[in-house]
Amino acid sequence: MTLLNTEDAWLPTVLAAPIIGSFLGVLIRRLPVGERVVLARSRCDSCQHALAPRELVPLWSYLAQRGRCRRCGAAIAPFHFAIELAAIAVALWVALLGADTPVRLWADCLLGWTLLGLAWIDWQHMRLPDVLTLPLLLAGLFATALIEPGELTSHALGAALGWAGLRALAATYRGLRGFSGIGAGDAKLLAAGGAWLGWEALPTVLLLAALSGLSFAIVLRLRGRTIGWTSRIAFGPWLALAIWLTRLYGADWLAA
């Protein structure tokens, strides 16, 4: 695996990653609870001190302040530092795999960053906001039109089949069990995955997501948590992971 050699195209994405991660942190904390994402000032969770620009520098501010608020000394949630590091990891992962064009590089990074935000939100709040899933679907079709215009029909069909297939599965499950087991947000996320990957990749995505989610449930069971038919486990993180890995390594990478 090598970094891109074409005019250091990977460097801007890596430099932008901590800024994107900082924004994702705000998005993840505020969007699910209905708070303003863009216009509201960032504040200390403990003393509500409005943070100055020097306290908002990604990664550096957390390290320079030793993980504590400059005003009251309360501990800053390590979540902010972690999401910024995760955003950098996404950019480096894409760069190391050697995307063939800068457009593909940026497209894959934007996909990864959005999937990261969606997975984190669903993990914490058991929901996948339309404000992220639907633009991700449209972005997948737009990216396909730019990078692989000949595959646009396959990817549009993937979006339609991803949504319809998972909604049909959810309806079947509800009819058999009497309660919902798959949310509408999951169907929209799979539709977005189809828009990025094409309909041929959907079986791989579903298989990988199901195996990942099942493995996680087994781990929880082994650690003593009671897991039954009515237990709620977020499917979005595993679906996001499956979409991401399939985008980077191809639909047949599991067989390989």
Features:
256 residues; mainly alpha; 2 domains; globular
Name the average pLDDT.
Answer: 86
Count, helices: 9
| Number of beta strands | 0
How many discrete domains? 2
Task: Provide structural commentary.
The chain has 256 residues and is mainly alpha-helical. It has two domains: 1-98, no CATH class; 103-256, no CATH class. 63% of the residues lie in helices and 0% in strands. It has helices at 10-30, 60-64, 79-97, 102-125, 130-147, 152-177, 184-197, 202-222, 236-249. Helix 1 packs antiparallel against helix 3, helix 1 packs parallel to helix 4 (102-125) and helix 3 (79-97) runs antiparallel to helix 4 (102-125). The protein is globular and about 55 Å long. Mean pLDDT is 86; it is low at 1-6.
Summarize the entry for a quick read.
The chain has 256 residues and is an all-alpha fold.
Topology record:
Blueprint: H1 10-30, H2 60-64, H3 79-97, H4 102-125, H5 130-147, H6 152-177, H7 184-197, H8 202-222, H9 236-249
